[in-house]
Fold each of these.
Amino acid sequence: MFATLALGAQTTRPWVVGQPYDTTSRQRARRPMTEHKNLTGNATNVTAAARKPLVAAAKRHDMLPIAVLLTTPGSICIERQGPRPANRTVPEEVVAQQHKDLFASRRTLKSEGFPEIVYSDSLNRLQPYLERLSETRQADLGLDGGAGLGDLTLVRRVFGEEILPLWRWKPGSNIAGGDRVAEIRLGQQYLTLALRTDVDGEGDVGFDVLMACPVFADCKSAAWAPAYNATDLLQALTGDLATDPDVYCTDHGPDDPEGRADLEQQYADAVRA
């Protein structure tokens, strides 16, 4: 078992133990130790007085205390406070002192009871990062034994994870020539999409978004535009895709020179107005 103590200037998260056990950081540290679980304490911990309780607790529970020194330069610590609200900002002189104390701590950690000292920039960080990405992918595809995202896998890949709570398939809809239809809705605004499984007759898969006819304002036929990402969805909602040459109406088709010229003239008139 290990009790790992992260030391760093202006580290804000206290005592990460996996779940909130009690109301204070010291109490939260106690339970995983008594249950023989590994523990990571993440706070500034730049003084011996702050580190002493964890070292003592680790020894009481026969755990190996490990010190991990965060090597972020003090100037970057100060710079990263820029986006924070005033009540979460630490004065620069305090950060500077923390960084100084952290530097001085390197000489005393072993005598304090840390038999192992690790610098954060020497840790193997890429492998666990890729492992998490791989685990997420396995879960999305249902390869971990779970249900996975199923038919939402492509939706997530194209439009991003944030669109999934808004996505609803519409079984039985026939507005897309037999292709599967979905809707994304938030409040009173919504978009209708079609899943195309044979784009350009070459077997490619993608989505079209339903729009108003780009040729004639009074046309009631369905018009579709390819939607490759969330930006295309936004432009479809705001009407910015109306002059895109890839938009086609099911009545007028993608290439209607007369209608397209009329559309361009309407757009020019609107700009001059």
Amino acid sequence: MTASPQTTSVFDIDDLAEDGPSLIAATSSLAAGLIQRFGYPETLRMTTVDVIRSKYWSNLRYGPAVQKWGTQANADTTQAPL
């Protein structure tokens, strides 16, 4: 790689202002744009349709905090594999 990965997306400012499903979708879109530069087709941990894929978060590290945040933000979660 000769340059740092970059991505550009357009979102409604209201989608970024509060925790919740819209923020998850925006984050997933930006993350997918970045990781595709490394050969991955999409993010495993969240979707662009507002869902946290809790199956792919480490239970020993970030998983419990992500689950707690998702509950507080009224975000949908799934354990379903890809």
